[in-house]
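Appendix B. One record, verbatim.
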Amino acid sequence: MRTLAINYAAAFQALPGMVALLTPDLVYADANEEFLRVSGRRRLDVVGRYLFDVFPDNPDDPGATGMRNLEASLRRVLNTGERDTMALQRYDLEDPDRPGEWETRYWSPVNAPVHGPGGKVVLLVHRVEEVTELIRARGGPGGNRGRVLEAELYTRARELQELNDRLRRAHAREREVALALQEAMLPAPRQLGHHRAAVRYRPAVGALNVCGDWYDLVDLVGGHRLGVSVGDVVGHGLSAAGVMGQLRSALSAASRVAEGPAQALNVLGRYANVVDGAESATAVTTFVDFDRHTVTYSSAGHPPPALVHADGRVEFLDRATDPPLDAHPDPGPRPQAETTFTSGATLVLYTDGLIERRDEDIDTGLARLARSLSRHRVADPETLADTVLLELLPPGGATDDTALIVVRL
């Protein structure tokens, strides 16, 4: 079957609604015929000009908020890469044939991103539907009902817009607090001491998607040994941050006295059963013995650590996997396995935000991680950590938290 060649420029101009394209600097790149007709503007009045030079607020209305609300919506689309539907807006237009005379107009706008090859927002689609006549017609000819409905809808729309703005500011404040709490509870890079290791934490994109993941490194008693662990708490925000702090501290303490990682996770599982919010939390811990050149490990429902051997082979430590921490009220012994390494190998622990993608099998993410680790295995831990994050995380940021630990053995 022959593929039909589509003239997208012609299709854009023929769209039945009002649609314009804006650059990230809010300059008109194009506008379709319906947009120009309804707004009463010519193409040369619009294309190549800054949005708010073409459509400023009504200077005779001190309470006008159209510019502020529209710019805030467009900035959100640029920052999040997601569509934003606005509440009903009053946005008066100056009559192009009678300068200084403004017409009261009502609009229902939707703004959406156009992503480039790297995932960056390269254009904004601004679609708007005029609802002025719809509001006024409800009152009938000569009646007051239309004006009352117009005022009521506008008032409710402004209240909704203000409520959304307050919610966004509140969410932003909670995110800042949660990030500060996360930073305070996780070990700083200087605490790595003499170990050749790098740690990274990347919060998820979004107002509250933060603080579910954690990591820890513990010098163990008896010989040249190191405990390395990561975990993931279901949920986000301050509540998840609090649970994360409790579980991390409990595992850190248990690791210092446990005979092995399985026993440490067994203690943590019992503790998780009495911590509200620890439902379905996962963790994996490894005990590295530098004298014996062994890595002993145990996992509670967590993605497997990766051991990158000096020859480039990547071994996923998946032979000791058990359900999440609180799966059983009185859990029995957890499984434990051991593997060996030679000097120059690299141990990598991470959380699922690094490898999981929607509509993609987890094995695909694991294979992607293995290729990246093998390709850059000779890099120092700091460089390797940055490179892995750069190659595996989406350009616009992940939708889940990501913790990463890289230890050169």
